[in-house]
Amino acid sequence: MSAFVRAVVRAALADADGPAPARLEAEASQFVLRQLARLPDFMRLPIRGVGRALDALAIATYRKPFVALDLRQQRYVMASARGSKIATVRDAVRLYESLAIFVREGTADA
Amino acid sequence: MPEPRHRNAPMPTSDECVVVGSGPGGCVTAYHLAKAGRSVTVLEDGERLSLDAMPAFSRAEMERKYRNGGLTLAFGSARVQYVEGRCVGGGSEVNSGLYHRTPPAVLERWREEYGVERLDSEIDLAEHFEDNERRLSVTKLPSEDLAPPAARLLRLGATRLGWESLEVPRWFKYDGRSVGGGRRQSMTETFVPAMEKAGARLVGNARVTRVERRGARWIVHGVRNDRYREPFEIATNAAFLSAGSIGTPAILQRSHVGTNVGRSLRMHPTVKVVAEFADEMNTPDAGVPSEQVKEWSPEISFGCSISSREHLAVNLYGFRSVLHDLSRRWKRMATYYAMAEGSGTGTVRPLPGFADPLVTYALARSDAAHLKRGLRLLCELLFEAGAVALYPVVTGAPMLRTKDQLASIDDWFAPAAANLMTIHLFSSCPMGERSDRCALDSFGRVRGEFGLHVADGSMLPTSTTVNPQGTIMAIARRNAMEYLR
């Protein structure tokens, strides 16, 4: 789970110029993992299940699981997931990305 | 600054009164019971932290003072994110302390539709409001010049349109010198020290799971949330459930106690919009301004929301180009909300094998209409106030640059896409004399159960149409006095 979260956070924080600083990625990943652990218990499984959905998208597009993709490919898969027809997938991607962005912007001037 | 260590009272095995939850309802109840000489233990699910243990609205606060880290959701055709405090002091520690007395029309509705007895703001509640207001330092800004710019802009837009705008009093000790200067008040600043001084014991990290009647007493069952995870039991003559509008019905249902419990949850569904202005007007310490527009009240109210850089970023999730440019623009931005009265109802249901209850909410058709109209009117107001761009927090919504674009709102607004949220939850155990719809009697006693009481937002029969904390505390005080009579 943590490898998957790190990959999602990395993709969420990256921009066209490349990845965010490793320290920010680590801090955001830890925060996302802690927040996932705090979710109401009946929501944890469906939200974590988004990993399977992203893997399915990644395999369908690149024949590799999500964590094995390079950053550009991961960002493409995330963008596809944002437009998914399945609300749970959209919501979960939004949750992961929002938490990562929350950390980035909260530490931007620190 | 390191957080000072607070005394955490040892867990007793029995006590005369046990209060479950230390939010506004629980603290007011515990204080008055203890002051009257009753032996009282207060059990709180969350940690004991001071008001300024971490910056307001920060990531650390989200992690340590919010239930489920702030990630709680009511399911339904339109999902509604709700937030609750989970710490000593409850919601009072994490909100902006806005204060309203209950509108007379709301009390009248409770009397007529729910048969609530002896409830009139002028006669029956006045002394309770006054006492709480004094203890909480409910006040207005010492000068209009000290209003944050986001509040002044909301007022400017309303004034230009000829709409009513007002400053809402709040729990605050203003220093009168600077914008935002002074000290916010909360339960840990007021009622918690007062109730402890009166002799009440406060035990943090103690999660109550259910209550059980054993002879003439109630057994309160729970688990310590600390590293030992020990189960506990406390016997009491009188248990007061103040675990909030989600927690209290969940405890009652797990205990198989009461009727009409957890079937009539109400809330104020809220939609937000980020406004961008030409000039800088936002600062890291802006807090939540206390200006509200009541022109369309009670159906719709407008106000200011948290506008720190990280909260703006989350609200701008759908506007990625703006998000990438946020470092340059966030000081010109603020978040505003349109809040609907909330005519829909929801449920709270414990799920077998899970600790957290499932919460649902069926948004009423009128709520959806009010939210859409409210968002359109709020956008109109913000353009009048000088906004150069508006970013509705609605999935798929376009950036708006002119009032004319609001004509297309039907094309992009749908409740399911509106990322609705609320901080006001109530009515899941309504009080009154109508046994067909009320879980409690007119004074918060669980119907048919001697010695079991409710003292939190769940007892309010319907929406208060305004921030409910003033109402919860006044009724908690009134009901505590009735118990002591």
Overview of this protein structure:
The complex is a heterodimer of chains A (110) and B (485). Chain A is mainly alpha-helical. Chain A has six helices and no strands. Helix content of chain A is 75%, strand content 0%. In chain A, helix 1 packs across helix 2 and helix 1 (2-13) crosses helix 6 (87-106). With 485 residues, chain B is an alpha+beta fold. In chain B, 27% of the residues lie in helices and 22% in strands. Chain B has helices spanning 24-35, 59-65, 104-114, 121-136, 149-161, 191-197, 244-254, 309-315, 320-324, 326-329, 365-384, 409-412, 469-484; strands at 14-20, 40-43, 72-74, 80-82, 138-139, 165-167, 170-174, 182-184, 201-203, 206-214, 217-224, 231-241, 266-267, 270-276, 291-293, 300-304, 333-340, 345-349, 358-362, 389-392, 420-422, 425-426, 452-454. In chain B, a hairpin with a 6-residue loop joins strand 11 (217-224) and strand 12 (231-241). The longest helix of chain B is centred in the last third of the chain and has 20 residues, at 365-384. At the A-B interface, helix 2, helix 3 and helix 6 of A face helix 8 of B.
Quote the distance from N terminus to C terminus of chain B: 45 Å
Radius of gyration of CA atoms of chain A, rounded to a whole number: 13 Å
Considering DSSP H and I runs of 4 or more, what fraction of the residues of chain B is helical? Answer: 25-40%
Category by helix and strand content of chain B: alpha+beta
Number of helices of chain A: 6
> How many E-type strands of chain A?
0
The portion of residues assigned to helices of chain A is over 70%
- Most extensive interface between two protein chains, with residue counts: A-B, 24 and 29 residues
Unreliable residue runs of chain A: none
Gyration radius of chain B, rounded = 22 Å
Number of helices of chain B: 13
Biggest beta-sheet profile of chain B: 7 strands, mixed
Instruction: Give the percentage of residues in beta strands of chain B.
Output: 15-25%
Strand content of chain A: under 5%
Net shape of chain A: globular
